[in-house]
């Protein structure tokens, strides 16, 4: 029960910080909208559903990267990670809370992104929405974990995409597959398995990321 | 409370701390002095578990949640208010009767009137007072303070003097300072680090 309370308090803190500073969400919203506008004018003629689905996932992935890159900025700039690490709570609560906050920002960006995609390109089906939900979990779980690793390095802005993008390839494969085939169950199952596997790995090993 | 044997720390080729031995009993008050770069902050970070020694051993009797640490940074969020910061730490440290304790500390350190203001609007002295409130919030057994008088005006420094005197004997202290005369009356031991 204490664990849930700790995660709740830390998530509330991250949401409150964003509400006050407005550093992350406006940037994600503007970026994803700009990407679709650019794609709309850059693609010649009538692009196929397969092509535009790929673009949708490129846009979601890079929008997520924007949010993930900023996830640990308050802790880095104000050195508050020391304070959190010294608290007697399970350190994985820090990772889970950050993941949930980033998930909220990404979901908010997608509330804008999916209608824009439908407006400019193709109808968004139920399978695509399910793939977005499942992919978001994996993106935020893995990305937050890597964000915590990257924030401790000098080349953090470079390290995060270098580590994150290769690990996100299975997400893209599963999500694009689920969005374009007639029976997406297999791909959605693959995404759920990825989420479960990486969430457990990140949860269990976050302790080692934040301790020297 | 704290026992260190031949403690050392290297960052690559650079040696940050060299062969420190210390024995600090429960209720003791150790004053750490030394020039800039002598390893005071490194030693204090090792004492609380934020850094690991590369040589020697350290044993501490206090659990993680019973340690209070004040470093060079106040470890508070600038975009949150004083109340929100202390609420957050109070929850994480499982402070009993949290609201009353927070109210008492904010009153004591003269921040009650400014409790709903964001820390970003605070002066350095006010931020340091808030940092001290954060450190004392969970009534730690082991208090590790790195230059706690920094940025405090005379009134703030006197408040801290009184707080240290009140807790002397109840808690165990490791305090790094460039002004040992200020705490000489409280100290039970002194460790001078060479550059």
Overview of the molecule:
Chain A is mainly α. Chain A has one domain. Chain A has 9 helices and no strands. Chain A has helices at 2-21, 25-42, 49-70, 73-78, 81-86, 92-120, 126-151, 156-180, 185-210. Chain A is globular, with a radius of gyration of 17 Å. Chain B has 195 residues and is of the alpha/beta class. Chain B has helices spanning 40-48, 82-92, 98-108, 124-136, 154-167, and strands spanning 2-11, 14-24, 29-34, 55-60, 67-70, 142-146, 172-176, 189-193. In chain B, the strands form 2 sheets. A 5-stranded parallel β-sheet of chain B has the order 5-6-7-3-8, with helices on both faces. In chain B, strands 2-1-4 form a 3-stranded antiparallel β-sheet, covered by helices on one side. In chain B, strand 1 (2-11) and strand 2 (14-24) form a beta hairpin. Chain B is globular and about 45 Å long. At the A-B interface, helix 1 and helix 5 of A face helix 2 of B.
Rounded mean pLDDT score of chain A: 94
Count of DSSP-assigned helices of chain B = 5
Q: Any idea what the shape of chain B is?
A: globular
Beta-strand proportion of chain B: 25-35%
Low-confidence sequence ranges of chain B: none
Largest sheet of chain A: none
Strand content bin of chain A: under 5%
Oligomer: heterodimer
Q: What share of residues of chain B is helical?
A: 25-40%
Largest interface: A-B, 23 and 29 residues
Order of helices and strands of chain B: EEEHEEHHHEHEE
How far apart lie the N and C ends of chain B? 26 Å
Q: Care to count the β-strands of chain B?
A: 8
Radius of gyration of chain B: 17 Å
Strand order of the largest sheet of chain B: 5-6-7-3-8
For the largest beta-sheet of chain B, the strand count, sense and barrel status come to: 5 strands, parallel
Uncertain runs of chain A: none
């Amino acid at each position: 029960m204490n664990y849930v309370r700790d995660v709740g308090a830390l998530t509330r803190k991250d949401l409150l910080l964003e509400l006050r500073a407005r550093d992350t969400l406006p940037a994600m919203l503007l970026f994803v909208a700009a990407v679709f506008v650019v794609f709309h004018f850059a693609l010649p003629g009538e692009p196929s559903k397969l092509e535009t689905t790929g673009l949708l996932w490129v846009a979601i992935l890079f929008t997520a990267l924007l949010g993930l890159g900023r996830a640990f900025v308050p802790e880095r700039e104000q050195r508050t990670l020391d304070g959190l690490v010294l608290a007697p709570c399970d350190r994985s609560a820090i990772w889970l809370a950050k993941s949930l906050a980033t998930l909220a920002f990404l979901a908010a960006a997608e509330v804008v992104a999916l209608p824009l995609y439908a407006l400019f390109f193709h109808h968004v089906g139920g399978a695509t929405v399910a793939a977005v939900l499942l992919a978001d979990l994996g993106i935020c779980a893995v990305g937050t974990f890597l964000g915590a690793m990257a924030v401790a390095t000098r080349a953090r802005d470079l390290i995060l995409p270098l580590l994150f993008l290769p690990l996100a390839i299975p997400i893209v494969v599963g999500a694009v597959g689920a969005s374009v085939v007639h029976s997406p169950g297999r791909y959605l199952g693959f995404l759920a398995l990825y989420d479960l596997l990486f969430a457990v790995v990140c949860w269990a090993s976050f302790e080692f990321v934040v301790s020297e | 409370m704290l026992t260190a044997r031949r403690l050392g720390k290297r960052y690559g080729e650079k040696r940050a701390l060299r062969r420190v031995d210390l024995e600090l009993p429960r209720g003791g008050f150790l004053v750490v002095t030394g020039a800039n770069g002598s390893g005071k902050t490194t030693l204090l970070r090792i004492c609380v578990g934020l850094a690991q020694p590369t040589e020697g051993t350290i044993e501490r009797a206090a659990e993680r949640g019973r340690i209070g640490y004040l470093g060079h940074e106040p470890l508070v969020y600038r975009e949150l208010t004083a109340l929100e910061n202390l609420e957050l730490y109070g929850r994480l440290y499982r402070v009993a009767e949290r609201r009353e304790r927070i109210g008492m500390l904010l009153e004591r350190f003269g921040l009650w009137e400014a409790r709903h203001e964001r820390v970003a609007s605070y002066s350095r002295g006010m931020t340091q007072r808030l940092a001290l409130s954060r450190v004392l919030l969970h009534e730690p057994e082991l208090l590790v303070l790195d230059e706690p008088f920094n940025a405090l005006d005379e009134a703030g420094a006197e408040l801290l003097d009184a707080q240290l005197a009140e807790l002397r004997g109840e808690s165990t202290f490791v305090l790094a300072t460039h002004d040992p005369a200020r705490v000489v009356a409280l100290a039970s031991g002194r460790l001078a680090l060479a550059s």
